[in-house]
Design a protein that fits this description.
The protein is mainly α. It contains seven helices and no strands. The chain has one domain. The N and C termini lie close together (6 Å).
């Protein structure tokens, strides 16, 4: 069984692989990473990975819908709520906590959100493979 310390260290390693040494990380990394850890600790490892992957799909979808001059475009939280990975299963307090943490990470990540999601998914996969 893995611990949250394992996930935290694995996530940090993935961030280093993506952004290089910690001093070179985007400023948002120090505030986004704790939210990614909250998501992982709130859900099972499989559910956390599925949520990160669903978030990546929703984020990519949002970027394709960004049309200049359009009065309303679906935002990330709305698109995530429509993603099948989020619709399945119970809507427990843990899942709501994970969703709130994900939306906070999205708002803080600026242009690096997809890279953070990639790191989070790879960290989940590495933890699962090691188990």
């Amino acid at each position: 069984m893995h611990t949250e310390t394992d996930y935290s260290l694995t996530l940090s390693a993935q961030l280093c692989e993506t952004f290089g040494r910690a001093r070179n990380w985007p400023a948002s990394a120090t505030v986004v990473a704790p939210y990614l850890r909250i998501i992982h600790s709130s859900l099972t490892a499989d559910d956390a990975e599925a949520l990160f992957e669903g978030a990546r799909r929703a984020y990519r979808r949002e970027k394709t819908l960004d049309v200049p001059g359009r009065s309303h475009r679906p935002r990330f939280p709305e698109l995530l709520a429509l993603d099948e990975s989020w619709q399945e299963g119970e809507h427990s307090l843990q899942r709501q906590s994970a969703l709130q943490a994900l939306v906070a990470a999205y708002r803080l990540a600026e242009g690096d959100f997809e890279q953070y999601l990639d790191c989070a998914v790879r960290a989940c996969q590495e933890i699962t493979e090691a188990a």
